[in-house]
Design goal:
By secondary structure, the chain is α+β, with helices and mostly antiparallel strands. The protein contains six helices and six strands. Strands 2-3-4-5-1-6 form a six-stranded antiparallel β-sheet. It is globular, with a radius of gyration of 15 Å. About 35% of the residues are buried.
Length: about 160
């Protein structure tokens, strides 16, 4: 499947908040998801902020409140409830409904929408990555697996 990946940075968290707002959905495993019709030719893209391996939600914060609370604090220069890099490791964008999109075209569209170039783009085997993640109970890095499949240099 065509995909783009960004390593987590404070600038990425701020850009997601400023350009996308609150996630469409937030999961107990830490994933934050936006579904947007801003892909090539109006294709719906899924923008997924992937959690760190072994993600733990900050105590006293509801699942849907984690990203907004952290993003606001980062944007203001305040100390967040937990540092972003302790919660998420990177962002992935891919066609949500299996639309055929060339990786380079996807990367260009994603740059236009987010304003930050991806660290890597190409074709990824999501099924293999998901199987590994599930087999380890969420103890593997989805972002590292994606970057490895895409041939991205280490950070």
């Amino acid at each position: 499947m065509p995909t783009c990946v960004w390593r987590l940075t404070p600038e990425l968290v701020i850009a997601l908040d400023e350009r996308f707002g609150e996630p469409t959905d937030a999961y107990v495993n830490g994933s934050q998801v936006w579904l947007r019709d801003d892909g090539p030719g109006g294709a719906t893209l899924e923008w997924r902020l992937h959690p760190v391996p072994g993600y733990e939600r900050p105590p006293g914060t509801a699942t849907a409140e984690v990203f907004p609370a952290v993003a606001l604090a980062v944007a203001r220069g305040d100390e967040p409830i937990r540092p972003p890099e302790a919660l998420w490791e990177g962002l992935e964008a891919f066609p949500a409904f299996g639309d055929e999109v060339e990786p380079a075209t996807l990367a260009a569209a994603a740059l236009d929408v987010l304003g930050i170039p991806p660290d890597a783009a190409g074709l990824a085997d999501h099924e293999r990555i998901a199987d590994d993640w599930e087999r380890t109970g969420g103890a593997t890095s989805i972002v590292h697996a994606l970057l490895d499949q895409l041939g991205a240099p280490p950070a």
